[in-house]
Amino acid sequence: MHRLLTSRRLAAGAGLAVSAALLSLPARAAVPESPDPIKIALFDWTSVNLNAKIIGGILSKLGYNVEYTTADYLSSITTGLTTGDLTLGVEYWDTTAGEAMKASDATGKTERLGPLGPKAKEEWWYPLYMKEKCPGLPNWEALKDPKCAAAFATPETAPKGRYLGAPVTWEGFDDERVVSLGLPFTVIHAGTDGAMFAELDSAYQRKAPMMLWIYSPHWANAKYKGEWVEFPKHTKECYTDPKWGVNPDQAYDCGKPTGEIWKYSWAGMKDKWPVAHKLAKNYSIDTQELNKLAGQVDLENKTMEEVADAWIAANEAKWKEWVK
Amino acid sequence: MSRALSIEGMVSEPVSFHALAWAAALLGTVLLFVFPDALPWAVKYPSWAVVPFADAMSAVMNFLKTYFSWLTRGITDVLSVPLGFVTGLLAKGWKIGSGPDAWMIPRVSWVGIVAAFTIAGYALGGARLASLAAGCMLYVAIFGQWDSTMLTLSLIVVAVPLCILIGVAIGIVGFRRPGVDAFVISPALDFMQTVPTFAYLLPMLLLFGTNPVAAVIATAIFSIPPMVRATTLALQRVPAEIDDLGSMVGCSPRQKLYRVLLPSGRPLLMVGVNQVIMLALNMVIIASMIGAGGLGYDVLLALRALKIGPGMEAGLAIVVIAIVLDRLSQAAATYRPAAAIPGAPVWQNHPYLSFALLVLVVTTLLSLAFPPLGSLPKAWTVSTGPMWKAAIDWINVNYFDAIDAFRTSLIVWVLNPVRNFLEGFPWLAAVTLLSLAGYTLGGLRLVLVVLPLTLFCAVTGLWEKSMATLYLCGVATAISLLIGVPIGLYAARSDRFQAFITPILDTLQTLPSFCFIIPVVMLFRVGDVTALIATVLFAIVPAIRYTNHGIRQIPVSLIEAAKVSGCTPRQTFWRVQLPLALPEIMLGINQTVLLALSMIIICAMIGTRDLGQEVFIALAKADAGRGITAGIAIAFIGIVADRLLRALARRAQSNLGLA
């Protein structure tokens, strides 16, 4: 029965294809499969909105009705995408949305469309001018030297250095890392990354001491000159097994994990707009290019649409391949 | 003075019990402080006794989501019709068809809207209001904020009438059934105003979806309370003669309500409408997180990229819209339309309205032929963006050391000691002392409010974070009062100073706090001082306003009487003006506390460790119950502070023979 249905559907499909060919309509006559709007989530940082506008731009060119909806990053994946209020979200970082993605996968109402391309990296970071005061860097062992730590101190943390960590929800384990690696540093948590980069910008202008958490891809890597601290390389065991690493008694004696950035869709997208789904699934971009595009928006003050349209025009061959 | 008052107050109650209870409680507290190990469970709330309230809330949410989403989604669908219409009209236009062959019905021309606002200003308040409205709307257009502003405005245009309808309806119920008002409506309103919106962000998304309608509903929840309160009050204040007249001329109860009582309460109702508009504008940032877009989103996006200038311009567009709507609605409250002439054509009876509509239609039709009328070309807009950033950078490079010295001493000498004291305070002692204070000020009734609400904070395992919240709000309130009350007193003496300070206060209250957080972080780093400054900038407004108003409303005759009886100016101030203004000042303190508490969420964005942070963690972990629980704890702190302060104000009033 089932097979019969399928074959019938196949035959109907073939018939349609033949008649389409006979009428010499373009292949995308079937697109859009539904006139309902495809809703793409916009968040509050540049690269995700660029990716959204690029995918959205291609979809409109294909004839889809596209809407952009502003949403909150973490809650969008556990609410909007599960209910179909949002069709597509293009950047969920392993490093910051790990738990939310797990919760979303558990509902079974969203689909993980695969990685976007760029690898998320995050680590302790300092501006290059700090290297004079602490010549052993980027090796992390240089930070154990009290003189070096003092170079990063502020009056209320002295003689310990001050490290500005990310929001507590980002699972950085820096409080643990400082203890297990014996670093003379006090961890201060910023509430949002906006606050983190505001402090960096202020310190950088004055060439003042600064050690903070920076992630990539991000425009800061294009704007400020600096380096990541090199901690012992991260492994899974390091976070779970105290015996691993330089400190035999404690876990977290290593750097932070790197991870993927994932694209997610509402589970119903696949059946409702198959071609759009295919595009979203195949879409990818590399780190260099994304940082460059984000820089055009954040540092050169171009609009998001200008940059996205330019990319779509320049890469037509590429995206035509994706929807084949 | 005030100490003498409260001791007098205590004396009027049974002395022995009171004195004994207070002595015992204070002694116990001191003992617990000195020997914390004697009763460890009374110092730190034991983790085994924590009630899993958050899990229960999550279960309730799941139940609602499973069984009631047809209802909530239905509401969404119904509301999306008017919202879609207004958004199309003001911001987006309509697209017919799809793909390249689609054609557009254009939105209303910006020139037409500027003209319509100007005409409305002229009709309601003459040339002055007209030029204010025109200037503000032109600012929005010229600074390139038009599209986002219209999106925000469409949200307001739909949310405000909804709030007014629901608010008036609930207000009428409250007027007719005082019992329901006291036990259901009033507590619910307190709740709606003190639970931070962020706490119910997740449930809103689950129930109503990620779309502009959810933003309208969140806005409505936050903005309805003043409308309800204004309606109940307006109906209660209608003079008995008018009420009687209504009955005498033979009105049915329903006719009396709609034809007599509500129209006579109109001025106060309009105050409610004005407050609804202001509160709705306060919500634009959060609304943008649930799918509304508009100015709030522009602010968020700009500040994430450290574009202080564009963020500030979008923020000021919110202020400008708030000022226009505020002045127009205030003028509308006192506006008396000329009586209509029966039989005359519409444009004669409503000349301004007809003219405005004509302008809107003509400019919109013209925009089809001349596109710049439809949307302002980018080349015509200006930006002050670079200037803002340059100013902050200049301060940063030249004055950071001085600022940092100030910051460090504030942390070391004030903030850290207060924080350590409060966080080490034994929870049992705190609950006991607060309940005792409740009994002293308001008797057993107040204890029944204070005791369960403070216990809630302990029992849910949120005690330490509650104390951290109390610490930040307490210090911020104290600083706001220390600065705000003297400014208010000075403003009451000098009309020029009052005129100077009023626009600053308006701006502080309507500019999203988000706009000044990033510059403040650049100068004061991440930490409690930044949070404190952001809170004080917002919470200082009522301290100034109420003090100013309190002194100014004292009848001139009383001051004259004081002078005649030979008071020196100093005596007049301390013995006459200040005591008479005390109730108003107390109300100002009350509002300052509540506003400081409402900033807790914003402070968590800087990096504080309190209930605000708990709300954020809940959002990140998609844990609706945890967020709501923290939100309720914040609301309870606010309600306890509010009730205690009110009781104190009543006590002060009755001691002065004012009540």
What does this structure look like?
The complex is a heterodimer of chains A (about 325) and B (about 650). Chain A is of the alpha/beta class. Chain A folds into 2 domains: about 35-120 and about 260-320, Periplasmic binding protein-like II (D-Maltodextrin-Binding Protein, domain 2, 3-Layer(aba) Sandwich), CATH 3.40.190.10; about 120-240, 3-Layer(aba) Sandwich (D-Maltodextrin-Binding Protein, domain 2), CATH 3.40.190.100. Chain A has helices at about 1-20, 45-60, 75-80, 80-85, 95-105, 145-150, 175-180, 195-205, 220-225, 235-240, 270, 275-280, 285-300, 305-315, 315-320; strands at about 40, 65-70, 90-95, 110-115, 120-125, 160-165, 185-190, 210-215, 225-230, 260-265. A 3-stranded antiparallel beta sheet of chain A has the order 3-10-4, sandwiched between helices. Chain A has a 3-stranded antiparallel beta sheet with strand order 8-5-9, with helices on one face. In chain A, strands 1-2 form a two-stranded parallel sheet. The radius of gyration of chain A is 24 Å and the shape is elongated. Mean pLDDT of chain A is about 85; it is low at about 1-30. Chain B folds into 2 domains: about 50-90 and about 105-335, MetI-like fold (Orthogonal Bundle), CATH 1.10.3720.10; about 400-425 and about 460-659, Orthogonal Bundle (MetI-like fold), CATH 1.10.3720. A two-stranded antiparallel sheet of chain B has the order 1-2. Chain B starts with a helix and ends with a helix. In chain B, about 45% of the residues are buried. At the A-B interface, α2, β2, α3, α5 and α8 of A face α8, α14, α18, α22 and α26 of B.
